[in-house]
Amino acid sequence: MLKSKFALFVLGGLLGVAAGAGGMLIAFPFLFLPPIANDAAPRPVDTAAPAMITFKLDETTPGRDPVHWANGSGAIIRTAQGAVLRLNGDFEAGPGPNFWIYLNTRTVGEEKDFNADAGRVRLAPIKSFKGAQNFMLPEGIDPAKFHTVTIWCESFGAYIGSGVLKKS
User: Which residues of 89-117 are buried (b: 16+ CB within 10 A; e: fewer)?
Assistant: First the structure.
């Protein structure tokens, strides 16, 4: 009898720790939001035509829902140091853990599209859920070979948002 009560106590404790850890993983980005990003716009090589490629995150894609979403616009700008992907000051995303920016070789509007793109390139984690942010593209990456910018949750394999790249 005492052994079974002890086993239930230990099992309850383990389940409580697991539930608490899982809850914090989900709650952490909501409780401890990073400050709004305010990166200065990169200085383009050609000031007459600063943006090589622009994009606007699509607010109508089927992969969006009230928890998984991102809005805003951006550009890929050629600078003296290389190409920079910029999320403009109008960028905003619903909080979550471990959001990354990807360049995709195909249209992405939900998880199945993202997972089907074997040519995607992982760029960097977002710095904040709101505000202007700059990300250097790795050397050798030609932005003209990509079709879409995607925000992706690495922790849960969830689509957050995407925008089609448009050459200016």
Answer: bebbbbbbeebbbbbbeeebbebebbeeb
Tokens standing for residue 51: 């943006």
The per-residue pLDDT string of the chain (168 residues; one tens digit each, 9 = 90 and over) reads 677 777 777 777 777 776 666 665 565 555 667 789 899 999 998 776 666 799 999 999 999 999 999 999 999 999 999 999 999 999 999 999 899 999 999 999 999 999 999 999 999 999 999 999 999 999 999 999 999 999 999 999 999 999 999 987
Specify the pTM: 0.80
